[in-house]
Design brief:
Organism: Coprinellus micaceus
Domain MYND-type: 412-463
Distance between the termini: 94 Å
Protein name: MYND-type domain-containing protein
Structural class: mainly alpha
Number of helices: 22
GO molecular function, one term: zinc ion binding
Keywords: Metal-binding, Zinc, Zinc-finger
Length: 523
């Protein structure tokens, strides 16, 4: 086995994976797993030589498994014959995965800056997890391992990992020459597929309130520390990528497993601040890579989906006003001046389409501002007071159904499900052709035909009247009791005022005299 490990670590030729697959045997793999003792020593037992030997043996087993999986995974695309050996490794690993996951959690929790095996084994644990989380649908053993709750526990322990050199900061692990955080990459990989999403949701649903708060706090702390290395353009792009990998999966978890407004608000507002920091650093360092702006707009799109929740109207307004709109106005001018791909425009379309019902409900979609080189279409309603403070001092504006950015580029927001390319110039329409649903007034369409198609296929089953309409009509003339006019049609018994009755007619006076008096329960 030592010869195989030396070959895998030292030889970088593509044929090393083939040689390793031929040399591996189930008995060899089982011997490596036998080094993982079923009982993990406690912290008070580390002073003994026996406990340290158990930990060192487990660390060596982790390194061997990481080496084998990395070597086979790197050669699998070029030599498909290695797939049988990879299946043997993953199948045996799935049988003993609970023991492997317990030792991974031990190494993560007891990581320290000294040269002890737990700290040296963190990279090996990340390598094993990355191999399992990559292409989960292509292998049944990977799917079985990734769907277990112990895998989710290992991922959460990685998120709780602190920096051993700087107490109070979140720990970051990098593999190879990449500058992106491997923990963010694992969090992104383990939340892409339906089976993994169900496992994450199940674990969060069964967690206590304190555990949920710790989970959100760990994500917020990692977001607050971005960008970690703002001295170069590559570090800023990596920080934007890490932020996108944190925001995307969290938006799904909040939508499915979290019911508290405070956690949602805390995450969105801190992510908005991180977007502002990265964008400001990108402008000051003159970053030419358009990926940084696409990553940031990608985050904004997920944040819009996270904020626009019908059950939390008041919170949605607060998040859209305090984070989403300001992030869009800050990032989009940089996207509009980059050359090439329309990915940023597509993400902007999704974000605007998501928050469109909330903007139209508050009347904030019209903002008549002409600043810088960016114009807005003339006409329209007055800007809402909700967005006056945000729009002031910026050089961007929202129109009722179009956002024009200083040139031929335009974004037409249409709620029709059959509109496949919202950012295409072919969907540009005159303001006279913009149609809105007359019932709910939440949905806008680029044409009457698109509105009719969406009504037949989808919108007729979900359309309801606007929730912001008053339940009781306030009379034009003031009455003696303002409570009666604004809150309820009749005053409460025992209140300081009495509802005014209509003038009594002769017939009405006779009926009152004939009616028996009702008992009074008020002292």
């Amino acid at each position: 086995m030592a010869e195989v490990m030396v070959l895998a670590n030292g030889v970088k030729a593509s044929g090393s994976g083939v040689y390793l697959s031929d040399s591996l045997d189930v008995h060899i793999l089982q011997d490596i797993l036998d080094d993982l003792a079923p009982k993990i020593p406690r912290s008070s037992e580390f002073e003994s030589a026996t406990a340290r030997q158990v930990v060192e043996s487990a660390s060596t087993a982790m390194k061997d498994w990481a080496t084998i999986l990395r070597c086979l995974e790197s050669s699998l695309a070029e030599f498909p014959v290695i797939q049988a050996a990879m299946d043997d490794c993953l199948g045996l690993l799935s049988v003993h995965w609970e023991d492997v996951a317990r030792w991974m959690s031990f190494f993560i929790q007891w990581a320290s800056p000294s040269d002890v095996p737990p700290f040296l084994s963190l990279g090996c644990c990340v390598q094993i997890m990355r191999t399992i989380a990559t292409n989960v649908d292509a292998n049944i053993f990977k799917s079985q391992i990734a769907s277990t709750l112990c895998t989710v526990d290992v991922l959460f322990n990685f998120l709780f990992l602190g920096d051993p050199h700087t107490p109070g900061r979140a720990g970051r692990i990098r593999l190879g020459h990449t500058s992106t955080c491997s923990i963010a990459h694992l969090y992104h990989l383990l939340s892409q597929h339906d089976v993994q999403k169900q496992s994450l949701t199940a674990r969060l649903s069964s967690a206590s309130l304190r555990q949920r708060e710790a989970f959100v706090s760990s994500l917020v702390q990692r977001i607050q520390e971005l960008p970690a290395s703002p001295s170069d353009a590559e570090g800023l792009v990596s920080a934007a990528e890490d932020l996108a990998k944190f925001v995307g999966p969290t938006s799904f978890l909040f939508a499915s497993g979290f019911k508290r407004d405070f956690e949602r608000q805390k995450f969105v507002l801190n992510a908005s601040k991180a977007i502002g920091r990265i964008a400001e650093a990108g402008v000051s360092h003159s970053v030419q890579d358009p990926l940084i702006w696409w990553y940031l707009m990608h985050c904004i799109r997920f944040m819009a989906e996270l904020a626009a929740f019908p059950r939390w109207r008041k919170l949605s307004y607060r998040l859209i006003e305090g984070g989403i709109i300001s992030s869009i106005l800050y990032v989009f001018p940089r996207i509009s001046h980059t050359d090439g791909s329309p990915k940023g425009l597509r993400e902007l379309d999704r974000a605007l389409t998501t928050i469109l019902p909330f903007l139209t409900e508050r009347g904030g979609l019209h903002a008549a501002r002409v600043l810088g080189g960016i114009k807005s279409s003339p006409g329209g309603r007055r800007a809402s007071w909700v967005f006056e403070n945000i729009i002031e001092g910026t050089y961007a504006s929202f129109d009722r159904a179009m956002v024009a950015f200083g040139g031929p580029r335009s974004v037409t927001v249409c709620c029709g499900l059959k509109v496949s390319s919202l950012f295409s110039p072919t969907h540009g329409r005159d303001m006279a052709s913009i149609k809105t649903c007359k019932n709910c007034r939440f949905y806008f369409y680029c044409s009457k035909l698109c509105q009719q198609e969406d009504w037949v296929s989808f919108h007729s089953r979900e359309c309801t009247r606007a929730q912001h309409k008053r339940k009781y009509r306030v009379p034009a003339a003031p009455k003696a009791c303002h409570r009666q006019a604004l809150i309820r049609p009749t005053c409460l018994p025992g209140s300081h005022c009495k509802p005014q009755s209509p003038p009594a007619t002769p017939d009405h006076r006779e009926r009152q005299q004939q009616r028996p008096s009702e008992p009074s329960f008020i002292a």
